[in-house]
Design goal:
Layout (H helix, E strand, L loop, with lengths): L24 H12 L5 E5 L3 E2 L4 H6 L4 E5 L2 E7 L4 E6 L3 H10 L4 E7 L5 H5 L5 E4 L13 E8 L4 H11 L4 E6 L3 H13 L4 H4 L15 H16 L2
Parallel strand pairs: 5-6, 5-8, 6-7, 8-9
Antiparallel strand pairs: 1-2, 1-4, 3-4
Helix pairs in contact: 3-8
């Protein structure tokens, strides 16, 4: 072909072009409002429909995204918005850098800290939500379990890290990582084992957190953590 790119890679994609009319403006408004409010609206596009609510059977049984095509008839459905949720416990410099980096990826990010006057909390315009908690002893009520939940613990220090780990260790997340040096984390894990926490639960914790890239600065640490999270997400 005279216009071939010469590239070795190949693949297929389907592009849907659908002309909307005034009767579908309400659906566009609903989608826009839901996304701005942090919700996850449905979008269904077919030959005859552009709507925000799927049939009950679609909502319960179809994998997402869902696409069917027969001759020239098609239907596409999906839930819009982020597919993954990152919960950062501790709002210091590394949390600020990680929030900025993850804001460019398919993650909704929430940051938790118990220090309302912290400068890095006030500067954090990248997280979708920043929540000030009175104490970390009830942090488990703030963070839902699930296969799309990723948790990073980077609080002020050893004692508060341990509190958070105790509260979350028996919960199921896609990823659970704790920031800290090898020596600190070895001591922490030893103490948790001595307290009776199960070895299989402790083994799920990624620590030292992040891929080993000899990171030093908050920005480099954020890159190492993000890379590890992505590797788990895409495994």
């Amino acid at each position: 072909m005279p216009d071939a790119s010469g590239m070795i890679c190949s693949g297929r994609q389907t592009v849907i072009l659908k002309e909307l009319n005034s009767s579908e403006l309400r659906a566009v408004d609903i989608l826009t409002e839901d996304l701005q409010n942090g919700n996850e609206p449905w979008l269904v596009i077919s030959e005859v429909a552009f709507k925000t609510a799927p049939d009950e059977n679609e909502a319960q049984n179809c994998p997402l995204p869902h696409f069917e095509r027969h001759d020239n008839i098609f239907e596409y459905s999906d839930k819009l918005g982020p597919k993954n949720y990152l919960y950062i416990i501790g709002g210091g410099h590394c949390a600020l850098a990680l929030s900025e980096l993850m804001s460019r990826l398919d993650f909704k990010t929430e940051v938790f800290d118990n220090r309302p006057g912290l400068s890095t909390i006030q500067k954090n315009e990248f997280a979708d939500q920043v929540k000030i908690v009175e104490a970390y002893e009830l942090i488990e009520h703030q963070i839902p379990e699930g296969n799309n939940s990723y948790v990073v613990v980077m609080t002020l220090g050893y004692a508060s890290d341990k509190v958070v780990m105790r509260r979350l260790i028996d919960r199921d997340f896609k990823y659970f990582g704790v920031l800290g040096s090898k020596a600190k984390m070895a001591t922490l894990m030893k103490e948790l084992r001595a307290e009776g926490f199960q070895a299989d639960r402790l083994d799920r914790i990624h620590t030292p957190i992040g891929l080993p890239i000899n990171s030093r600065t908050p920005e480099e640490i954020a890159v190492s953590i993000a890379a590890e999270i992505i590797s788990i997400k895409n495994a």
